[in-house]
Write a structure and sequence with these properties.
about 110 residues; two-stranded antiparallel sheet; rod-shaped
Length: about 110
């Protein structure tokens, strides 16, 4: 068997970074798998908060009153009434659907 050059023998015997790279890969995997559920929780809470704001906006109905107090002076009154028949929106999670294997379409929320 031919002798390896000295630099190749040193490279072959060097394993100082092998443990470090393995530890780094494991730590990064744990961090990534820990971040994913956190991001999902943030997405769901943001979706619920926006649904609450949408419900508030849809229930409040603006009512405008425009009147003339004196010649040349007008008053615009804005009153917000409550509409009991307004639709309520729910912050639901909707999964994307693949169409023709390429296009991603999101189905409307129920």
């Amino acid at each position: 068997m031919p002798k390896m050059p000295r630099i190749l023998q040193q490279l072959w015997a060097d394993d100082a970074a092998a443990i470090l790279s393995t530890e780094l890969v494991l730590i990064l995997a744990i961090v990534v798998f820990g971040i994913i559920p956190g991001l999902i929780a943030v997405r769901n809470s943001t979706n619920a908060a926006l649904a609450t704001v949408a419900n508030l906006i849809s229930i409040l109905t603006p009512q405008f009153t425009f009147s003339q107090v004196a010649p040349g002076q007008f008053v615009l009154l804005v009153n917000f009434g409550v509409n009991p028949n307004a639709p309520l929106y729910a912050g639901t999670q909707v999964a994307p659907i693949l169409v023709n294997g390429a296009n991603v379409v999101v189905a409307p929320a129920p």
